[in-house]
Write a structure and sequence with these properties.
By secondary structure, the protein is an alpha+beta fold. It is built from four helices and eleven strands.
Amino acid sequence: MSESLTFLMGKYPAVLPADLRYARNHMWCRPREGALRFGFTSYAVRLMQDVYFLDWSVNAGDALQHKQQIGHIETSKAVSDLFAPLAGTLVRFNDEVLKDPSAVNVDTYGAGWLFEMAADESDTLSVQEYYNFLDANWEKTQTMLKGHM
């Protein structure tokens, strides 16, 4: 198994565990009991900073299309739409993180998970592929961030 990687966002590290898969919308993916568990990567959490509120516009059992809008998130930076990382069927939400989304900020790869889907993980990226994706887009991301400051 490969080692976890750390992507440097300027001076801030975004740790990317090697045992996870990744989606291009900056969610991690972990196979779990016939489903895939998703949460925000440390990269996404660093960009968003503090997550204050999550709201879902879909329900458990719904069939989702890739990039379908599934909800909203409120952070210290903005209110944004959330999109499905893959096509599949939504299995369940993390009820605890809906009550208190602070787990997203403090336990990104553990208690801060968002939802589970029945989907094909072959459409996700390995840790190295995700790192390369971040690296290829970092300059554009910095330009966008600086434009909002």
